[in-house]
Amino acid sequence: MMNMKQVPLLINGEFCQSQSTNKLDVVDPATQEVLAQVPYATDQEMQVAISSAKEAFESWKETPVSERARLMMRFGMLLKAHQDEIAQIICQELGKTMEDAKGDVWRGIEVVEHAANIPSMLMGETVENVARKIDTYSYTQPLGVCAGITPFNFPAMIPLWMFPMAIACGNTFVLKPSEQDPMTVMRIAELFLEAGAPKGVLQIVHGGKDQVDTILDHPEIKAISFVGSVPVGQYIYRRGTENLKRVQAFAGAKNHMVVMPDANKQQVINNLVGASVGAAGQRCMAISVAVFVGESKDWIPEVGEALSKVSPGVWQDEKSAYGPQVSAQAKERILSLIEKGKQEGASCLLDGSEFTHPDYPQGNWVGPTMFADVTPKMHIYQEEIFGPVLLAMHVESLEDALEIVNNNPYGNGTSIFTSSGAAARKYQHEVEVGQVGINIPIPVPLPFFSFTGWKGSFYGDQHAYGKQAVRFYTETKTITARWFEDDIAHGPNMSIHLK
Ligand code: NAD
């Protein structure tokens, strides 16, 4: 292990090796080859990262907004130029197919493009003559040091949801990426420095719970963005807000697709296949439950048949539909849930638990799996599986389908497939889920909207991806000024107040 690559930290503008002896292997999930080791940053390294982010804030907040915007423009161009290279790192450490990995990078680039429009998003409001010769106007100002804690499944897109918007607003940022695939964001960070990011504006630390706890408790951290599982999201929201910080936590999901009998059958089948097992089911917006209404239940066997033709494989093979699960533990967890589904009486139409790839027998493979006759009381329905497993349910009416979806504790995404405008309108209006697709299986909004999970899929007040990020990452300052004739004569320099 002498020459094993170590994933560096990014502290105060330098990529540096951690002094920690506590390390984790970063593994190719198709071969188990160890690609690198990631350190759990020491407490001292955490403190230095946070204090140098604080130091960098003092000058970064004074940097003209147009300069901050131009940094994002240059960063976006560099990301585009290196898109394939970044995607390849994702393929290596996470096992995604090249197409999925490119999508991961591209969705992140879109946020950077959005961040390049920061000046108009930061504009305040003005009302003249709120009283005689008194005007009120507001500014948005950055908060200070903000932090992000990200999951394994979108190692480019989710860090890019966070730090570009926070930094464009004038904050500095401490990022703790997933310890399972930390290499992708390190390449992204190199490009951020190459784009001209000043020293200390972005810090990257690695680790797990201890490092996250330091972030949650540190008085200099003003706002925390988290994306990951429900138990961790709840913990981070509770502990962060207990420390009186702003926290937004995007959490797990169980997304339903409602299939009406008037939908286009072939579209339903094609979309269900991609949305349920695509990306190995490791997407927070994956469709994991299909609710067939009325006669559409007759299509269930054909969905199973279509799924049986999907074969996972390695990213180097263009024919691979999806890759392995991120880790051996993730695979074991999915297999135990498949087993549980069989025990609790769901009909297993397709069982991928025995799947193995002939050329990569060490891979964390799970083949496409489908259960029918699933009921809301079943464990496989209640728990997020986060693997290539589709559950099918059958109900008699759209009202019944709505009842199932609305009783589910999660509310990240959902979709309805129908040719009826009335059914689509009723569903979009009554469903208690934050992101709704009509004849679209995975309705992820672009960053000029917000990513709007509801209920158990989100803890916080503002969905600070995209549009609302400015509200999350800034404070509003409202000024009410009385103008004397003399001030007005001095014009905008107002030297009178600086004497
Ligand atoms: P995870 O919750 O295990 O880890 C997320 C982050 O939290 C990682 O950086 C990890 O190091 C850290 N962490 C883990 N345990 C911790 C603990 N006990 N205390 C403090 N920090 C801890 O999630 P994951 O497995 O990496 O990602 C998959 C999950 O993320 C799924 O549940 C998925 O639905 C969810 N997700 C949600 C969204 C969304 O927008 N709602 C998007 C992507 C993924």
Q: If you average the pLDDT, what whole number results? A: 95
Summing up helix and strand content along with how strands pair, one would put the structural category as alpha/beta
Number of helices, counting only DSSP H or I runs of 4 residues or more: 18
Heterogens: nicotinamide-adenine-dinucleotide
The helical percent reads: 25-40%
Q: Please count the beta strands (DSSP E, at least 2 residues each).
A: 22
Strand content: 15-25%
Unreliable residue runs: 495-499
Summarize the main sheet.
7 strands, mixed
Q: Spatial order of the strands in the main sheet? A: 14-15-16-13-12-18-19
State Rg: 25 Å
Q: Give the termini distance in whole angstroms.
A: 65 Å
- What overall form do the CA principal axes indicate? globular
Note down, in words, how this protein is organized.
The protein is an alpha/beta fold. 38% of the residues lie in helices and 22% in strands. The protein contains 18 helices and 22 strands. The strands form six sheets. It has a seven-stranded mixed β-sheet with strand order 14-15-16-13-12-18-19, with helices on both faces. Strands 9-8-7-10-11-21 form a six-stranded mixed β-sheet, with helices on both faces. Strand 3 and strand 4 (34-39) form a beta hairpin. Helix 3 runs antiparallel to helix 7 (183-194). The longest helix has 18 residues, at 43-60. The radius of gyration is 25 Å and the shape is globular. The chain starts with 8 loop residues before the first strand and ends with a helix. Nicotinamide-adenine-dinucleotide is lined by residues 149-154, 176, 178-179, 208-209, 212, 227-229, 232, 235, 250-253, 284, 384, 386, 412, 451, 453, 457.
